[in-house]
Recover the amino acids of this structure.
């Protein structure tokens, strides 16, 4: 039994991986369906108000998925990540592990990698569902746009995991970690309203998938945000390790 | 093996440990006693590297893989089985002997529950699992914080037996506020009170120092009359009724008592059930030292 296997068991036996998969795959399955049939669904309500929906295009199927994935999906991802990354949440459990490793990074590394892997796998599984269903219901999508957009989304998810780890190491409480992480993730897009600042923020990557499917915009548009996000992720992981190492039980 | 020199720990204005120096003999079971809040857990946490001292030094001259720490209420991920917990502890301790896992699980009396998830374990089972996880790496230093505090009498006896069995194989520091537990398993004791070390030495020496010259006499009938009859004797410092039919006779010396007590009881026509020197417990010694 290694610390890597421990984290794998944490994801599977505590059903955290299942929760992630269910949420993302649900949105992946329903997103394109809603994009295709939203007009008909609204008509079924038979109200007097006439709502004109534009004819859906393939990018709308993915947009429906990413919209939900970036809200409810991200909330679930933060909760799951916090459950694994706040290593001192239960001090008696923490004593068992902390007193048996050379450095706290030995504990944190498998948790970071496994948490990110689970969230990324769930996101990609949902995206794969959305892509398949979009292709059937709305038409084909640009492969290059999908791959590049997915890559940017994964960079953002890595940042989210690192953010949760840093806040978790500092606070030692799952609830506080979830709350503060959500606030930070909500504040970033608000700051991004300022255009000059927005293209440098991690939250800019959230829109990459949609934009790259709708326009011919080059991936270099997202280079500044990618560089900043990768750098912030590295700093947050360093902070998480440092704060966890100095945390007293 | 274990070095604690001038150790202090402050939490703001509260002084949890104040200039504590311990001399823990190698291979001994060292009982660290004191009431709740005396600083026992803080001291063990600093030794385990889980807290930083404000000043002083606390070091263990052994690799962390050979040092085992058991908190007062061990907890493990509830979806792990007992065997997996011990396997993880064995892996982290660098234990390559796979039979060691089975051996310590059996030694802790958990063979029947080895493949059950620990989420359903009782407090006593978790405590025994914690000890199994601590022992699987053949540690040379074991730090145990109140290992038997919340167990029923049978569970407590089992845990104390496990601790006693470690003597000689490992240096054990064992904290408890249950003084009879410490007296039962420790050969050396350190008494902490309000963050300061009030006494350190062998348990037997402490009891000898604390011993008063007194006899406990059990009689049938009215003990008050017997006490009143003994009071005027010149070798009696005081005679008090402790319980129904039981009196405590403080004497000037044990040799005086040996010479005069039984004849005096006979002269008073007391029906004597038993006469024995008062045994001092660690609890009495502790109370005397800290009151």
């Amino acid at each position: 039994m290694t610390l890597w296997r421990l984290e794998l068991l944490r994801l599977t036996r505590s059903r955290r991986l299942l929760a992630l998969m269910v949420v993302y795959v649900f949105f992946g399955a329903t997103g394109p369906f809603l994009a295709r049939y939203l007009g008909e669904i609204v008509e079924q309500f038979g109200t007097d108000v006439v709502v004109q929906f534009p004819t859906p295009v393939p990018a709308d199927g993915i947009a429906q998925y990413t919209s939900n994935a970036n809200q409810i999906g991200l909330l679930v991802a933060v909760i799951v990540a916090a459950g694994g990354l706040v290593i001192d949440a239960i001090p008696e459990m923490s004593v068992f592990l902390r007193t048996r490793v050379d450095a706290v990074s030995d504990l944190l590394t498998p948790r970071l990698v496994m948490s990110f892997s689970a969230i990324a796998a769930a996101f990609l599984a949902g995206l794969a569902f959305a892509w398949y269903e979009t292709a059937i219901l709305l038409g084909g999508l640009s492969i290059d746009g999908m791959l590049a957009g997915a890559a940017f989304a994964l960079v953002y998810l890595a940042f989210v995991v690192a953010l949760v780890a840093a806040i978790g190491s500092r606070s030692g409480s799952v609830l506080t970690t979830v709350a503060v992480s959500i606030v930070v993730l909500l504040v970033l897009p608000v700051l991004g309203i300022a255009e000059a600042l927005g293209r440098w923020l991690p939250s800019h990557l959230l829109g990459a998938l949609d934009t790259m499917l709708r326009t011919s915009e080059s991936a270099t548009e997202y280079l500044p945000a990618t560089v900043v996000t990768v750098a912030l992720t590295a700093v947050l992981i360093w902070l998480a390790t440092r704060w966890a190492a100095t945390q007293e039980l | 093996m274990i070095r604690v020199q001038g150790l202090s720990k402050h939490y703001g204005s509260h002084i949890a440990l104040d200039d504590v120096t311990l001399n823990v003999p190698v291979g001994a079971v060292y009982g660290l006693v004191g009431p709740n809040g005396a600083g026992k857990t803080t001291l063990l946490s600093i030794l385990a590297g889980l807290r930083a001292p404000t000043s002083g030094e606390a070091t263990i001259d052994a690799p962390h893989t050979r040092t085992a720490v058991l908190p007062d209420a061990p907890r493990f991920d509830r979806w792990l089985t007992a065997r997996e917990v011990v396997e993880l502890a064995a892996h982290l301790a660098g234990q390559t002997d796979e039979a060691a896992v089975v051996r310590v699980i059996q030694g802790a009396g958990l063979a029947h529950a080895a493949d059950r998830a620990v989420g359903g374990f009782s407090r006593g089972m978790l405590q025994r699992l914690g000890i199994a996880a601590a022992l699987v790496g053949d540690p040379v230093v074991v730090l145990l914080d109140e290992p038997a505090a919340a167990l029923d009498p049978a569970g407590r006896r089992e845990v104390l037996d496990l601790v006693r069995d470690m003597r000689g194989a490992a240096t054990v520091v064992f904290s408890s506020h249950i003084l009879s537990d410490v007296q039962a398993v420790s050969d050396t004791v350190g008494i902490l009170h309000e963050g300061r070390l009030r006494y350190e030495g062998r348990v037997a020496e402490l009891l000898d120092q604390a011993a008063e010259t007194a006899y406990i006499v059990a009689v049938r009938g009215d003990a008050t009359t017997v006490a009143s009859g003994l009071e005027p004797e010149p070798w009696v410092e005081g005679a008090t009724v402790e319980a129904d039919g039981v009196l405590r006779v403080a004497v000037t010396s044990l040799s005086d008592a040996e010479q005069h007590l039984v004849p005096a009881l006979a002269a008073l026509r007391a029906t004597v059930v038993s006469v024995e020197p008062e045994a001092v417990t660690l609890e009495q010694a502790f109370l005397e030292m800290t009151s």
